[in-house]
Amino acid sequence: MSFESKALISNVKRQAKRLSKKLSCSLGQAQEGVAICLYGCESYSDLLVKIKAESFDNQLIALSALSPNSEIFLVKILASHLDSIIGNFEKKFPGSNINEELVISLFGLSFSEFKVKIST
Asked: What is the mean pLDDT of each run of 10 residues along the chain (120 residues)?
């Protein structure tokens, strides 16, 4: 995946759409959820500003480039932050049973692909 801001924003939009379908919530709620829970931003617009500014001082912003064909280092960033991301989702969407598989699926990865990649 490219680190060009247009491609990253497109990827984030896909993640929000996946979350919206999985949780049966509005796209706006999913966009805010992705921004806050995945990326540690204050809002969806804050996330977009950071991506456009190419502000990668927050390591989680790099996850906007994560997709099935991504470099291993991105998968490992996700793996190292997975527990806190799940905790963030549980706070934002209580009772929604967010787990590792759901979070990983937001990036278009299967759980088995993820496990293989983090074991290398």
From this structure: 82 97 96 97 95 81 91 94 96 93 96 90
User: Which range marks the domain in which residue 90 is found?
Assistant: 5-118
- Model-level pTM? 0.90
Count of domains in the chain? Answer: 1
Query: 26 is written with which tokens?
Result: 């509005």
